[in-house]
Amino acid sequence: KWHEGPAVVDTVSGWLWFTRTNATRAQNGIHRLSIHRARKQGSGWTNVEPFLYNNPECSVGHPALSPDGKVLYFVSDMPGGYGGTDIYRCQDTGGQWGEPENLGPVVNTAHDELFPYVAADGTLWFASNGHPGLGGLDIFVTTTNEYGTLVTAVNAGAPVNGPKDDFGLIIDATNRKGFFTSNRDGGVGGDDIYRFTMNKPIEQRFLVSGMVIDDLVELPVIDAQVALLDDKGIVVATAITD
Questions:
Q1: What is the pTM of this model?
Q2: Of 175, 135, 173, which is closest to residue 157 (Cα–Cα)?
């Protein structure tokens, strides 16, 4: 009767993991999300089972799997997070999922992190409206270093991201072609699906913002030239204040 949403298939075991809107409301009157799995049988699906860490009083949804099926990522607003919805992961401990682990401040913010997707090379893509971005939900990407620690989340940049909501990215095994969802202007209406080709790897970039203040009158200065210098004093970028 309600919604079934983001889903992922475990290519190793054949299980389909999917998001479902709970039919019963939580105590605050909201229909929460939960994760279930089902196994393909003939032309249909059977053996629908709930995820171990579903909770009727908080949302658990948007499942994503590591390429080997040993790590399950998901989104939740469970207590103890950084705020809004956070991304968590569980390790397969041999037939059962271990305790959920919050991915920490590299990924999660005081706002919403949503729609995780793990590429064939283990790269984690997700959407966020808490990290510095171009507006609304933006798509970000992060990888793990040699010690298994997540490194800085990088904004995918334009033209994938824009001033509206951009989310739900998936990409093929070659990290070349993929799809994402956006409500940007020029679509058919509401949220539309877009496809893209990645021409080169995403580079780490930083957003620098600020104001130039007139010290005498303590007001912002319009049309002032600002220079960004590297550690050797060489100008690497300039901007004009608005």
A1: 0.85
A2: 135
Q: What is the pLDDT of residues 66-121, one digit of tens each?
A: 999 999 999 999 999 999 999 999 999 988 999 999 999 999 999 999 999 999 99
**122/70 Cα distance (integer angstroms):** 12
Query: How far is residue 166 from each of residues 38, 53, 73, 121, 224, measured CA to CA in Å?
Result: 29, 28, 20, 22, 33
Structural tokens at position 37? 């799995």
The one-letter amino acid code at 202 reads I
Pairing of strands 15-21, 154-155: unpaired
Residue pLDDT, tens place only, 4-22: 999 999 988 889 999 999 9
**Single-letter amino acid, residue 84:** G
Please report, for residues 43, 60, 84, 173, the alpha-carbon distance to residue 57 in angstroms, rounded to integers and kept in the order given.
Answer: 34, 10, 14, 37
Cis status of the peptide bond prior to 159, with omega within 30 of 0: yes
Going by C-alpha positions, the residue among 67, 71, 59, 72 that lies closest to residue 19 is 59
Give the C-alpha separation, 146 to 89, whole Å: 19
Residue owning tokens 């210098």: 229
Q: Which residue has the tokens 């997540």?
A: 150
Tokens of 57: 């009083």
Q: Which two tokens stand for residue 38?
A: 């089902």
The set of residues, in sequence order, having a beta carbon less than 8 Å from that of 174 and lying 6+ positions away, is none
DSSP 84: S
Contact 228, 236 (CB under 8 A): yes
Whole-number pLDDT of residue 170: 97
Beta-bridge partner residues of 225: 240
